[in-house]
Prior knowledge:
globular, alpha+beta
Amino acid sequence: MQEVKYQQEFLAGFQEEAEELIKLHWEEIAVNRDFIHLNPCWESYAHLEEQEKLKIFTARSDGSLVGYFVVIVNPHLHYKDHLFASNDVLYLHKDYRKGLTGVKLLKFGEACLKADGVSVLTINTKVHQSFDPLLERLGYNLIERSYSKPLLEL
């Protein structure tokens, strides 16, 4: 396995190459695949990036994209003196899940966000694909539970 490089990227350089990994990600974790189909709104991502609210962190092996950690940064409605970042998507190709690639990707993203003045980073995981022990080792605390219910039948 090649050495992995971690970097912050912009949407224009990430989008096309990410589509293959995004599809793998969706196939692995999506719980409502039967009626909610993968169809990223790239225009909304571009708009967030224009507002400097979208942050994309990547892991690349020999130049190829093997993982991504995408967050959205906003002032919090309850704590306007602080920037909060919430992950949008976080994925690492199965071939890179052993070892420290995921840890290094998260730590790289954390360092960049901290340098940007972000006070709090929130990471959500799927119940059926959680990696809670890793997050706890990295100092994250379980703070909230989220429930979901389909309202439309398509």
